[in-house]
Design goal:
four-stranded mixed beta sheet, 20 helices, binds fe (ii) ion, 6 strands, mainly alpha, homodimer, binds protoporphyrin IX containing FE
Chain lengths: ~450, ~450
């Protein structure tokens, strides 16, 4: 197989996934979950970060008055750390959809850390696997395993590292900021997730506790839930204008929840495009922000798929839907399944009183249609037993497309010799010299 | 020509179009309009009915107080006479889209008369010509001659009766109500257009003059202008979901103005359907009214085109639009226009440093794409000079439709022998026994 070599190249030059992980020992996920071992299946660190800490925050909020300055700062910091994930982790590092200068990279690594969703390196590796193996067992957060699984089930439950598809992250291993953030992840999280937002409110207006609870813990919870929606909601709700083979979907609700990552059908089809929304009226603040950074000289090389390619994708998907629709409609008996009738037999049957009309070499039974004919009974009746090709196609009236469609549902046979038969036959009768072709 | 006989059948068994009309003398429209003969080109009867009388009504309205009862009655009578045209003249008599009992027919002939738009017989004859010869010179109110012409220009200016397409109106000549109304047209107009609405307000609440001006003259003006929109606006504003060869269009504004006749693209395609709007949420009070008459036993045999035929028309129109779009996009150089390259030449050129990748027998130049490849530089580079058919199609990654499209824009040549060449060549090199097919 020619694919052997690239398969090798696809192997990540990855550091061990966990200090404790020993590939020779069977992994806990290979054992069925029982009443005795269920707690071993749970990823307690993640449960703490995603569920217990927010729960503490919600309870503590009852005893913590919310100052409006703190509220504003919490929302601002929500957007900043959210952008750390969407513009940083996702569009910059996982997809290299643009290039960032070092100051911007440091900012994004810090903000993304403050969202408490793992290191860039870990996040981007999983995300690349998600794109490459979408909806398969190798997809770390496959929506095929349930909406809740794709939302956070995949973090709450321990995962077998062998299961998740391999991807090339050599570019990330070459990025010193990514490597530094990975090595110093815990420090980053505590500093940017809790200490920094708390210092702002504390030094700014003396609200240490409010900063900790609202701009820290609860803000983390909201950022997490919002960005998790990209893996759940974006694979579950909406349209599929570019491809319907897999689960990604476009929806404005997802976009509103995820700082613009809601045009996910587009994104899976054109992953290295720095945009998720391609129309100006769609909500994609992450795109807008990247664009502003470009104007400020902080970002460059913003990648865009050509409009031509995007339109091709949209067109093919529309074509696919049209073809599916076409299959459900009745287009009349296919010509090759119709019996072949001789001209004389056709004429004779029509004279016998059967309402047959030949158009373009095909015989139609119009019995049930005569009284419904929009052009009146007289005209349609006058064509019975004749070759009506010319009169149907403009000789008397140039019938619409709809009339042609309707006609094809009335097919009962094909004329031996095709549509010119009547003229030939008559010529033959009148002038025996004319050569007559018959099959 | 086989069409000779039906052409004859299509001749209307028509009464002379006007007492004064003599087909042997040249018609006024055959002479160019000059400063001396312009007034002969004007149809003064119509100008009086359509413009002068309403003008008088508008002026008289300044001296005529509007009572609210009279206003309500004017609106009610507007709808009744409007339905006389849409449900009567148009859908019943011009298109036979349903059958009406005698009482309903008498009601519709009276109401339609009250709208002052000509007799049923005259109106339906022109309307059938409009459908049969839409947009051509034989169309009595072709929009191709201008929006204003199609609105009322065709009535204001004298028309050459020879120009207007012939249609079969034998069914109308067999209808005693139609014939009676045609013979007694002036009486009908004066009775139903002016006297009757005036009697209602006069005997009802003593407002003789208000009834005459508002429920009579001005109401006539509004009904006329509204129904004229079917010939102008409906051929000018909106979408063409079923056929775009001719001018008819669908638009909700036209529907609102015309008691539901605004789905005119549908109507021209399916003229004998008693509906103009096919969706429940579209505005078609004429359809609703006919349906109610059916429930009351006043109308029966409501004709509908099969949903299958309607969907076929819609689908074909969508297909047509898609095909037009397809033509505007770049799909790469067609295979038959590409040079044929030998496998060895391909391998050699790739070794020489040109970034060529063969997929499915076609050679692609990916030079400009390597750094943009969403799957990374390493993977795509590894395929240079190889047959990448299998790795591109799932061996490493099952590329999306978008990737296939993009690939086709990079075509530079076709491999002699097709896509299996590499395997065959290798087999040949390794085992000289294998038979090798070359063209
Ligand atoms: C053989 C089967 C026929 C079918 C299925 C058929 C179908 C139709 C349909 C659906 C229309 C509505 C307008 C349109 O869709 O274009 C129509 C109109 C018409 N048909 Fe036919 N037709 C048939 C045969 C004929 C023949 C043989 C003649 C003439 C000899 C004829 C003359 C007309 C005319 C003059 C109209 C125009 C009516 C109008 O728009 O006012 N048709 N026909
Ligand atoms: C020959 C020209 C190639 C083109 C035009 C191309 C194009 C693309 C495109 C457009 C994508 C984005 C996802 C998608 O649309 O499916 C993609 C992703 C990918 N490509 Fe290629 N590719 C090429 C060659 C290759 C080769 C030779 C390999 C492997 C040896 C490869 C491996 C991948 C992988 C693994 C991804 C997944 C990246 C992800 O979704 O994270 N590609 N490619
Ligand atoms: Fe996704
Ligand atoms: Fe992504
Ligand atoms: Fe029309
Ligand atoms: Fe019509």
């Amino acid at each position: 197989m020619a694919s052997a070599a690239p398969q090798q190249a696809a192997q990540p030059a990855s550091a061990p996934r966990s200090k404790k992980y020993d590939p020779t020992k069977p992994h806990i996920t290979e054992q069925p979950m029982t009443i005795h071992n269920w707690y071993k299946h749970i990823n307690w660190i993640n449960v703490t970060l995603i569920l217990f800490v927010p729960l503490y925050g919600i309870i503590a909020a009852f005893w913590t008055p919310l100052q409006w300055k703190t509220a504003v700062w919490a929302v601002v910091y929500y957007f900043m750390t959210g952008l750390g994930i969407t513009a940083g982790y996702h569009r910059l590092w996982a997809h290299s959809s643009y290039t960032a200068t070092t100051p911007l990279k440091i900012f994004l690594a810090a903000m993304g850390g403050g969202a408490v969703e793992g290191s860039i390196r870990w996040w981007a590796r999983d995300h690349r696997a998600h794109h490459r193996y979408t909806d398969t067992d190798k997809d770390p957060y496959s929506v095929r395993k349930g909406l809740l699984y794709s939302h956070f089930g995949w973090m709450v439950m321990k995962q077998n590292p062998k299961r998740i598809g391999r991807t090339d992250i050599s570019d990330l291993n070459d990025d010193p900021i990514v490597v530094w953030q990975h090595r110093n992840y815990l420090k980053t999280v505590i500093t940017m997730g809790l200490i920094f937002p708390c210092i702002v409110t504390g030094l700014g207006w003396g609200d240490w506790k409010g900063g900790f609870i609202y701009a820290g813990i609860l803000r983390i919870f909201f950022v997490q839930q919002a960005t998790f929606c990209v893996n759940s909601l974006a694979h579950w709700l909406g349209d599929q204008p570019f491809d319907d083979r897999n689960s990604p979907r476009d929806h404005v609700i997802t976009a509103l929840a995820t700082l613009g990552e809601g045009y996910h059908n587009f994104h899976h089809e054109f992953p290295s495009d720095y945009r998720n929304a391609i129309e100006w009226h769609q909500y994609d603040p992450t795109k807008w922000t990247i664009w502003i950074w470009k104007q400020l000289g902080l970002a460059y090389d913003l990648k865009q798929f050509k409009q031509n390619e995007i339109e091709k994708g949209r067109l093919q998907q529309l074509q696919k839907k049209l073809d599916q629709k076409r299959q459900q409609l009745d287009w009349g008996i296919p010509l090759e399944q119709l019996p072949i009738i001789d001209w004389d037999a056709y004429e004779a049957e029509a004279k016998d009183g059967r309402a047959l009309i030949a158009v373009a070499g095909v015989v139609h039974d119009v019995t049930d249609f005569i009284k419904e004919h929009p052009g009146g009974k007289a005209l349609i009746t006058s064509a019975i037993g004749k070759d009506a090709t010319a009169i149907f196609n403009g000789g008397v009236y140039n019938h619409s497309n709809a009339a042609h469609n309707l006609l094809s549902t009335m097919r009962v046979g094909v004329l031996r010799g095709g549509c010119e038969v009547e003229i030939w036959k008559r010529a033959q009768r009148e002038n025996k010299d004319i050569s007559f072709v018959s099959d």
